[in-house]
Amino acid sequence: MLNSTGTIQSIEIRYLEAKLDKPFGWSQRWTTSRSIIILKLTTSENYVGWGETYGSYNTCLEMKSLAELVVGHDSDNINKINNKIFDQTFQSHAFAGATSSFLSALDIALYDIRGKFLNEPISTLLGGSLRRNIPVYATGLYYLEGFPIKPHLDEALGYVEKGFKGMKMKIGGLPIIDDAKRVNQTREAIGPNIKLMIDANEAYDKRTALEMSELVSEDKITWFEEPCPSRDFHSNRYVTENSKIPISGGESLHTSLEFSRVISENVFDIIQPDICSVGGVSEMRKVGNMANSFGVKINPHFWGTGISFAAVLHCMSVQPILNNSQINSPYENQSVLEFDQTPHPIRDELTDRFILKNSSVEVPQKPGLGIEINEEVLDKYIKGEIINV
Ligand SMILES: [Mg+2]
User: Among 162, 251, 263, 290, which is least packed by CB within 10 angstroms?
Assistant: First the structure.
């Protein structure tokens, strides 16, 4: 048996994009496509690891110079490689841009390789899983053209039928009175026993956010996500301190350094790091530990493919419950994970689909991420050149 995964021999970065049949929207914009950046890392011992992140083709070009920093380095030592990137980009907090995107994808790929080498799933590498199934909720209920309510309510009922015990809907794209009405109608349709969350995607100023919170106060809302711009910590904290509904946010923040302030200053009741932006498995674990130490809930964001979904499942399998108790109770003391149900052709074709059972998804048990990549999908959806380092 070899005693090393070898040096990093090549890093391929691809920007993939798929067109959608119908646009859907949220408070900030409408989309007619889904995209993702996929990173494939190959070592001198022929281990292959996969990672992913968000951005454009231009992000891929920026990632190229970062990939050049680590090619040739020993792939066994994930900490050393991460440290090298932090070292080279620290001044002026450069890692809050393409660096954290690159770091996220690279770190996931390195963990994938390490697990394959040791023949263990990533959760074992992280010290061993506390649970094999992670509670998830459905993300969907975006706006459709013309804002019709009937398909929205049908979609909500569809999630109940599939077995989801929670779901999240968009607000912030209409005047608050109209959005509040849609929330009322959704609650009425799904009944009192399904968790319902609302997500404004940074739509409001602090007073409007509180007005909205008040308008839906009878609808048993489990959390109100991103009421204000995500880096406007003062407004978010004001809403957190004054809203009866718990407030969440943080999906676009980078690294544990950005989360340290959000957590220590009580900006949100619930933080929502995304493994594709925060810095991969390594930074997700740091943020998870910090959240636990400060008594803040962590319910991660997810918007990618099976690569980042598998990575975050592993991280959540080692996340302790928030306070010691006889039982693990999702939404109360146990983290719940976002399970995107919106159209995403790349996600649907790139890996096997994750099966929903009891409103949970099983943590992959095969080595590394524990998923297979269908590489034909990379060719099918690539836009621009492969960035090859
Ligand atoms: Mg969100």
Answer: 162
